[in-house]
Amino acid sequence: MSVSREVALAEIADIRLPDGRTLAEADIVRALSVDGGTIRFVIEAADAAAASSLSQVEAEAQRRLEALPGIERVQIVVTAPAARPAAAGAAPSLKIGRHATGQAGPQPIPGVRSIVAIGSGKGGVGKSTLTSNLAVALARAGRRVGLLDADIYGPSQPRMMGVSDRPASPDGKRIEPLHAHGVTIMSIGLMLKEGEAVVWRGPMLMGALQQLLQQVNWGELDVLLIDLPPGTGDVQLSLCQKAAVTGAIIVSTPQDVALLDARRAIDMFNKLKAPVLGLIENMSSYICPNCGHEAHLFGHGGVAAEAMDLGLPFLGEIPLQLEVRLAGDSGRPVALGEGEIAQAYARLAARLIEQGVA
Ligand SMILES: Nc1ncnc2c1ncn2[C@@H]1O[C@H](COP(=O)(O)OP(=O)(O)OP(=O)(O)O)[C@@H](O)[C@H]1O
Question: What residues bind ATP, as annotated (predicted)?
């Protein structure tokens, strides 16, 4: 009999990283799956330098896991996001991160027809990647699209959409968003010094979010996509209290553990009275770029089954493909291209347009 996922995780939990933390403490193992005699997982390093220092960790994990009974093969992929481009240009005089001002319930954003939050239960499932590609696919389908990066703990849209200028605020009151690939963009990451927001607590987060929703000149939009931080915290709560959210989309990978967290996120949106518009499965299958063989590294179909169980729409699936990550790291989302993956994002966009939310 093959070992369980938990046993595999426990076996590598105490391997030390160069910075002295253990793998478990650093929480950088993603999507570990045991498939017969094969264990596969991703180590997500903070940046390229950290990734290149992990070869001994990788070798040790490989050695330990291969020694487990019944395990014949261990496949480890180390990934790292590219460095975020440095912000340039004149800083707006606007002070971001003040306390929230009084507001009577969730408000619409003038000119914005629909507000769609993109959430996930767990970090690292590809929510930001999905959001940038969906935004591009919707823009290609002729929609007027805005993208608000509210992932306060790891704003990645500037990198993924290839923007780095600091947004201007000529009058010190309104913020001018940026534009890339046909999408109007604003990210909390463009307004802050690196690392600044992570110390914020509820009221500051609420104030910053309120500013991004209400003080940015979004213009006329068919849909504003909001890239949320993972989990069920203050930002999600503030968003649903401050903005008239049309609905939420939940992104998950197919494994049970991600799905469990996704269920919590769905629960939260239900409690906050933001209708869940549907579920998307990311990293659904792996198509070998050389031979075209399709493999299901993290399982397949778990999210569709979960959607069925919960009576929610299943909106579609995006395969695990190196080009998705490379395109995201280069600031040109893969949905700009013509291949199969771009078509998968185009189908998702079409679904949302069909549902009348984009
Ligand atoms: N379909 C995919 N194929 C290949 N790589 C992917 C895919 N989706 C996401 N990735 C990669 O996985 C990593 C995590 O993705 P991303 O940052 O979008 O996740 P997230 O859920 O937004 O994470 P966070 O918890 O930091 O908000 C990135 O390196 C991204 O390029």
Answer: 121-128
